[in-house]
Amino acid sequence: MKLSPSVEETEQYFKQLFIDQSDFQAKRLVIGGTEFRLFYFDTLIDPSNVQDFILKPLLLRPQDPIHEVVSIIDYAETEQADEAVHAIMYGKTVLQRSGESRLYLLGADLKKERSINIPSNERVLRGANEAFIENIDTNLNLMRKLINTTDFVVKTYTLGRLSQTKVAIMYIKSIADTSFVNEVDRRLQSIDIDYVEAPGFINELIQDQKFSLFPQLLITERPDRARAYLMEGKVVVSTAGSPDVIITPVSFWSFFQSSDDYQISWILGTIFRLLRISCFFIAIGLPAVYVSVSSFNPNLLPINFVNTLQSSLKYITFPPVVEALAMMLLLEILREATIRLASPVGQTIGVVGGIVVGTVVVQSNLVSNTMVIVAALTGLASFIIPSYEMSSAIRLLSYPALLLASLFGLFGLAFFFMMICIHLCQMNTIGLPYYTPPFAMNPAKDTLLRAPLWAKRTRPSGTAKANKTRLRNPRGWKR
């Protein structure tokens, strides 16, 4: 809609549009014989900014060009009413001078955001202690400070018909594959939805496999981790209102990597990486192994262990599969209760739950001592996974593994792991293979092992086709 030079008509248009908005304000000013109108939401603007940087300069120079009068960096002009409406809703102050069919969009919005804190979900012993916050501009500021190069590209646009959520994608132009960046951009811009709740909505709407339990996009709250993946040709997606960013594409092995792995020696990093991957199998298969061995194949164990196992099951009312399911469900209930309740109460629930599981349940002959140990090891093995999404998927996968083991013994468990392997091999993430062989010859692969930095001379070929060289002479001091 084209604007009228009459400030009365413009005011009538805005008042009709925001007729139900009690915090919308239209202020009339007459300065030096010239009439002005200010349009804004008083809940979104900072009154001191409007007073100091808009009104006071206008009182001194009402006839001069507006861009020479106001001292605001966030300044724009428009002749379209629709652009002015969006500017008002984003917290800007819109100014019109009588006789001009032009609106001035002045950034005097109120800045309210929490300070940058340490990461709450991805804490490390070594490394940076900064985490993203809900303000996307602050998040982009953190990334700009970490990557000081003109090749670092940030593209922003808006998603959500009603929410008008600001979304930004980040990549390094000289490293990332252009075709892949265009594909991510195409998928994001094709989202047609009323509002965007990130990262969950974006994760679900752009991933390839809609019915897979395994996470296909990596979510992190750490700027240094986002930078590390950008250096490998990945794309980072940040959304207003979310303290997390999305990294894509990632492989299955990315969910077992931690920032601590790269702050210690490569030998220790490899050991800890192998420990996490071992816990992947423990968290899925340990209850199933317990059920299959106690019900089908006790002869696979040493005779002393069999005697101990049989004695612990002697007075148990329920079969092993029932007690295993009961213990796993009880652990999930305790975990959810601890997360949802307030911190002091949550800690109390954890202590009380541990006492109940460890003493009362065993003394009541509802669950065996061995099953309590198995459940505890299973829970600890799932919690050691750095990614919350992968940890949740692992806990859910342990249930079908348990059911197959209760029906077919160790053959059922072997069949289950075979199906998981087939499923991982046929998955793609934004067009790239999700599961790559753990012992690939490319030294840039970071899978089961954390290779020494001086040996990782090339980047992953899938996402960094244009610039594969990572290191040229890493130990140049040694002749």
UniProtKB/TrEMBL annotation:
<feature type="transmembrane region" description="Helical">
    <location>
        <begin position="274"/>
        <end position="293"/>
    </location>
</feature>
<dbReference type="GO" id="GO:0009847">
    <property type="term" value="P:spore germination"/>
</dbReference>
<keyword id="KW-1133">Transmembrane helix</keyword>
<feature type="compositionally biased region" description="Basic residues">
    <location>
        <begin position="467"/>
        <end position="479"/>
    </location>
</feature>
<dbReference type="GO" id="GO:0016020">
    <property type="term" value="C:membrane"/>
</dbReference>
<dbReference type="InterPro" id="IPR004995">
    <property type="entry name" value="Spore_Ger"/>
</dbReference>
<dbReference type="InterPro" id="IPR050768">
    <property type="entry name" value="UPF0353/GerABKA_families"/>
</dbReference>
<feature type="region of interest" description="Disordered">
    <location>
        <begin position="459"/>
        <end position="479"/>
    </location>
</feature>
<feature type="transmembrane region" description="Helical">
    <location>
        <begin position="313"/>
        <end position="334"/>
    </location>
</feature>
<comment type="similarity">
    <text>Belongs to the GerABKA family.</text>
</comment>
<feature type="transmembrane region" description="Helical">
    <location>
        <begin position="397"/>
        <end position="420"/>
    </location>
</feature>
<feature type="transmembrane region" description="Helical">
    <location>
        <begin position="341"/>
        <end position="360"/>
    </location>
</feature>
<dbReference type="Pfam" id="PF03323">
    <property type="entry name" value="GerA"/>
</dbReference>
<keyword id="KW-0472">Membrane</keyword>
<protein>
    <submittedName>
        <fullName>Spore germination protein</fullName>
    </submittedName>
</protein>
<feature type="transmembrane region" description="Helical">
    <location>
        <begin position="366"/>
        <end position="385"/>
    </location>
</feature>
<keyword id="KW-0812">Transmembrane</keyword>
